[in-house]
Amino acid sequence: MSNQIELRHYRYFLALAEDLHFRKAAESLYISQPGLSRQIKQMEEYLGISLFERHNRKVILTKAGSYLQTELIKNFKQLDEIINHAKLVNDGLDGNLKLGYVGSAMQDVIPELLLKFKQHHPKVLFSLNEMDNKKQIQALLNQEIDIGFVRMERVPRGLNIRSVFEDTFSLVLPKNHPINEDNFTSLSQLKDESFIFFDASYSESYYEKVMQIFDKRGFAPLISHYTVNASSIFRLVENNFGVSLVPTSLKLGYDMGIKFIELNKIPQRTTLRIVWNTTNTNPILANFLNLTKAK
């Protein structure tokens, strides 16, 4: 009997599952409330599943209804992606690849990868969104982006992770700071300075790596500011609010009153990794992953 269910029934169900109110759901669907009630009842009869508990004016999803809602949202989103991809193909493009990234990845790694990819796949449309690590992970789980560029070591089940670039750290100082590359010997010279760091929420593993650097030097940094934006860090340093420690690749693309001292003699490194959802069906994704594997 399930072959009597049409796509509109599922859309009616999702509307009611979201609003949990027949009148509101009916209004959002531009149908009558009795009509919606009848369609939902037909759907339950066809499927042999109780989807809602009805208590006077209150509507509650059953356990089966809640499961169906979750899976339908996931699959409808995939259907939308398929249709959008078909539209791109119709317009002469091979498809769309949505990337999330932390700021440092855009300085060098991503532009290099995109240029290489474009040589072999010139008809791919790229959507780029700067996002912190946690937002990327959630967007990947929801399949709102195809690839994430993160600074973290572990990801939730269902996601894959691979290293693409290992970076040194660099000290960031105001341009007029007395310490420079010629007289710098150790971070201990800056133990009385105020430090400006990426917030731990930016990446807990990255923050721990930075703290390890100071642990090895035998002192805890005096932290005056936290931020999740590199340009904010640099602007604060430029205006003498403190000094900072960042991935070396971040020094590219900025023209401010600051200077960098690369700490290439310390063992600590920060690794940029790509992350993707193992269930992602975007046909462009596999080609992009092959490129990063060869990098």
From TrEMBL:
GO molecular function: DNA binding; DNA-binding transcription factor activity
Keyword DNA damage: no
GO CC, alphabetical: protein-DNA complex
UniProt xrefs under Gene3D superfamilies: Periplasmic binding protein-like II (3.40.190.10), Winged helix-like DNA-binding domain superfamily/Winged helix DNA-binding domain (1.10.10.10)
Stretches assigned to the HTH lysR-type domain: 5-62
Top-rank taxon: Bacteria
Keyword entries, A-Z: DNA-binding, Transcription, Transcription regulation
Pfam families referenced in this protein's UniProt entry, alphabetically: HTH_1, LysR_substrate
Family label: Belongs to the LysR transcriptional regulatory family.
Protein name: Transcriptional regulator
